[in-house]
Specification:
Layout lengths: L1 H21 L2 H6 L2 E8 L5 E5 L2 E6 L3 E6 L4 E7 L6 E9 L13 H10 L4 E3 L3 E4 L7 H17 L3 H14 L4 H60 L4 H27 L3 H26 L1 H4 L2 H20 L18
Parallel strand pairs: 1-8
Antiparallel strand pairs: 1-4, 2-3, 2-5, 5-6, 6-7
Helix pairs in contact: 4-5, 5-6, 6-7, 6-8, 8-10
Length: 340
């Protein structure tokens, strides 16, 4: 009887482990990226951009990884003295997904995982051939740089985008397109930097609120503990001397309590945190002006104004550091005015 029970337990354990083995099969077996081979008609090093990932100075043929999640994977390739070459890789259904059916009742869950990360797709072809067209036209080279830079911009690789826009600008500085594209990159950089600063400021604000809350709870606990000790001390005395002593104790402890409360409110009060957040926003505004000076120097840069702003930023930061707060220091506070 005991052996039969053990055999049944083993069978159930084996049955229940099946979903764990076969769950999200497409994700486990195929992965979220797929390798494909890229060939071409050139032997010189190629710059490749594949689904936002960069492959620098590669020699064809080479192997790259495309993202299964994308409906269509995009491959862009640039070679000096050739026009920009682009190819797209279409996807089809990955039949490995059906292995999720072995997961019985958890089949919908595993299907969702494969759908969410794109593992249910696979490339229609595993080999891509790039046919590069040579060119001697400055206009075609200019357009290739602009197009390639735009591909990088779409992938949020802003430094690479700026590099190719600058190459286009060097070819034809009169053309407004290159200058406009460069301005777009600077604006995007500025936006992302401001977004990062705002996130840091928000994190610092919540840390300050938690600090205030902790200080308030600590002060409340101290007050309750003092009140309880006074209550127990005063109940034991019946004589006038005891009452006087108790009264002195109350007076003394009250003064101590007021002193503790006063010291707590000095650092960490709601009003002070509010003031600090106001100064943090002011600090961020000063930082924004310095970034604009660097991004558009011909329009905003003024050396004396830069120094004044940096002095104001330093004063704000040092004021709150002296009060015991953790304060974010911007790199722009020490900027020497040289355009980056």
């Amino acid at each position: 009887m005991e052996k039969a029970t053990k055999r049944n337990c083993l069978r159930w354990a084996l049955f229940l482990s099946i979903p764990l083995v076969f769950g999200s099969c497409a994700t486990i077996i195929s992965g979220t990226k797929q390798k494909i081979t890229v060939t071409g008609n050139v032997t010189t090093p190629v710059q490749l951009l594949v689904d936002g990932d960069t492959y620098s100075n590669v020699t064809l043929p080479t192997t790259v990884k495309i993202k299964r999640k994308n409906e269509v994977s995009k491959i862009s390739a640039l070679v000096p003295d050739y026009k920009l070459e682009k190819q797209e890789v279409s996807k089809m259904f990955n039949h490995t997904v059906w292995a999720n059916a072995a997961g019985t009742v958890l089949f919908p869950v595993f299907m969702y995982v494969d759908w969410k990360n794109g593992a249910y797709k696979t490339a229609e072809q595993n080999n891509i051939h790039l046919e590069f067209t040579p060119t001697n036209s400055e206009e075609e080279v200019f357009n290739s740089f602009i197009d390639f830079g735009t591909e990088y911009y779409a992938a949020d690789q802003l430094n690479n985008a700026l590099y190719y826009y600058q190459l286009a600008y060097d070819i034809d500085s009169v053309n407004d397109i290159a200058l406009q594209k460069k301005d777009e990159v600077y604006d995007r950089m500025f936006y992302l930097e401001q977004k990062a600063r705002a996130k840091e400021a928000k994190t610092a604000m919540w840390l300050d609120i938690l600090s205030v809350t902790g200080a308030a709870l600590q002060a409340t606990g101290t007050t309750i503990q003092t009140a309880q000790s006074l209550k127990h001390g005063s109940s034991g005395g019946a004589t006038s001397n005891s009452n006087n002593y108790s009264g002195n104790s109350i007076s003394s402890n009250s003064n101590k309590n007021q002193s503790a409360t006063s010291s707590t409110s000095t650092k960490g009060s709601v009003s002070e945190v509010t003031n600090k957040n106001t100064d943090s926003n002011t600090y961020s505004d000063w930082e924004t002006q310095l970034i604009k000076m660097n991004t558009y120097p011909e329009k905003y840069y003024n050396d004396s104004n830069r120094r004044h702003i940096q002095d104001q930023m330093k004063q704000i930061r040092q004021k709150w550091e002296k009060r015991g707060y953790r304060v974010y220091k911007s790199d722009w506070e020490d900027w020497d005015g040289i355009i980056r």
